[in-house]
Each structure stands twice: as C-alpha cells, then as structure tokens.
Amino acid sequence: MEPSQIEELVRTVLRQELAKAGEAKIPAPSGTAHPEACQGECCVPRVVKPPVPRDGHELERIVGATPARIVQGRTGTRYLTRVYVGLRAEHAIALDAVHSEVPKDLPAKLGALALETRAKDKEDFLLFPDHGRRLSDASRALVEKEATKGVDVQIIAGDGLAAWAITQQGAELVPALARELKSVGLTTGRPLFVRFARIGVQDEIGVLTHAKSTIILVGERPGLGTGDSLSIYTAFGPRLNQDNAEKNCISNIRPLGIPTQAAAAECARLMRRTFDAGGGGIHLVRPVRDLRR
C-alpha cells in the first residue's frame, strides 16, 4: 500500500471515530489544491479534544495504580484545593526527609561498625557533597583496624539524603542482603554504617577493605512524598572516584515500591552476574572478558 493510501485510510478511520463522538472533521489529505476539494469535510478545528472515556471507572483504576500525581483536575486555571493541600503536604515530607537523621543506636541494631564521613554536621553534608564521599581520619583508622578484609561483597549502609529510608528499611534489608548474597556463592563481612554518607564513600571503603566489590544502601534524594525511598548502588573492583558507568543501582525500595526481600534477591542476582561478567555497569552489556580480546 502506498503512503498516500495509508494516510487516506487513517484519516477515514479518524473521521468515522470523530463523527461518532460528534466532533468536527479533520483536514483533508495533504496536497488538496482548494478547500472545495474537501467536499464539506474541511479542517476546523485542527486540534480536536480527546473524547471522554466511556468507562467511568477507568480513570479511578489509573489513579489507583500509581502514587504519581496524575488526573488531578483543576478549577479554572488553578489546582483544586485538595490537590494544592496535598502537594504542600508531600513537599513537607520531602523537606523533613532531607533534614532527618538516624538514631544513634541504629548501627548497633544493624550489627554494623559505625563510621562517619568528613562532614561535620547535617548542614555541612548538604552544602559540601564531597565531604560525604570520604571517611574522617578516625573512621579510616577504625576500618583498617576492625573491618573485615578481602570479602567478595562489602555491605555498607548510609543515611544519604533521606535518613528515614535506612531507618525504616535497613533493619530488614541488611540481613536479607547477607543471606541472599551467600545463596549465590558470595562472601560478606561485617556490615558498615556510615553517617552523612554520599554514594562515593563506597569507593574509599572498598579500597581500605580490599573487597572485590561493594554495595551501599542510601536514602534517595526525595521527591514529593517519597521520604522513605532507599537505593542500592553496587561497584565491582572498587577504586577511588570510580566512574558511575561501572556501577548499578536498584532504586525505590520502600512499601510503595520494591519490597525489601525482593530488592535483596534482585541485588544478589545482579552481583552474581557482575562477578561472572568481570565488572558491573556497562560491562554487564559487554563483559570485560570480551573487551580484553
């Protein structure tokens, strides 16, 4: 079928559908020399409003399938009051999550060695991201003295940009990760907990512990109403300032996203693939062993 025939067929079907909805006809095919050639089927309006869904419950189903703010409605050019109030509430949740801090007893509950970065406090951590990517001198010494060395996967938990996330999901996720990694033949040492942690701190920890790989659990930068969302970042062959292209991420770990047990199982499968490929990130698309030929 020629392109012009396809175009005419599509337009014919659209005219039929629009006629059913009581809307105006769409333009005649391109190349029509004069409006008279439209034979009464001229091109007003060019933008046709979509027909109202015939199933009145369909929008409810769509809205109920996601926590995202869709089909919010409006009054004139403004949000509905309930929508506006909801946005303010979810924005407040995000702000509170950014400024939240973990309780002092959390590392002990996780069975983890407690560490800190070079960030002096929460404000310093937020204003100077690099301070959260390196350990303090005292924590470096603690890692060298007490951390397990030479394991396949070093598990690290950190507060990140939403401390609520590790507080709520950490106690279940950390031991689940250890179990799942063991089930795919990978060794883990004593978990580490890092206060005021950015993702990059896993690079230094991997170097200090001589681990073959590291995974770090950190609270995600929160969006509207997502102050409890946790992410796992994985790195193989740790080195300082390792490129993110060599890392992988499992995000949105929370009750409304990926459950902790499912996230642990997925992380174990990911790490098994990473070890088999000889690298993570882009190497999972084309393994290191192939690149070296």
Per-chain topology:
Blueprint: H1 3-20, H2 58-64, H3 81-99, H4 106-110, E1 113-116, H5 122-127, H6 137-146, E2 153-160, H7 163-183, E3 192-195, H8 201-209, E4 213-219, E5 230-236, E6 247-253, H9 260-277, H10 288-291
Helix pairs in contact: 7-9
Describe this structure in words.
The protein is α/β, with parallel strands linked by helices and 293 residues long. It folds into two domains: 51 residues, no CATH class; 186 residues, Rossmann fold, CATH 3.40.50. The chain has ten helices and six strands; from the N terminus they run ααααβααβαβαβββαα. The protein has a six-stranded mixed beta sheet, sandwiched between helices. Helix 7 crosses helix 9.
Ends apart, CA distance between termini: 48 Å
State Rg. Answer: 27 Å
Work out the helix count.
Answer: 10
Which spans have pLDDT < 50 for at least 5 consecutive residues? 23-29, 32-37
CATH homologous superfamily label of the largest domain: Ethanolamine ammonia-lyase light chain (EutC)
Strand content: 5-15%
Shape summary: globular
- Structural class of the secondary structure composition? alpha/beta
CATH class of the largest domain: Alpha Beta
Task: Give the fraction of residues assigned to helices.
Answer: 25-40%
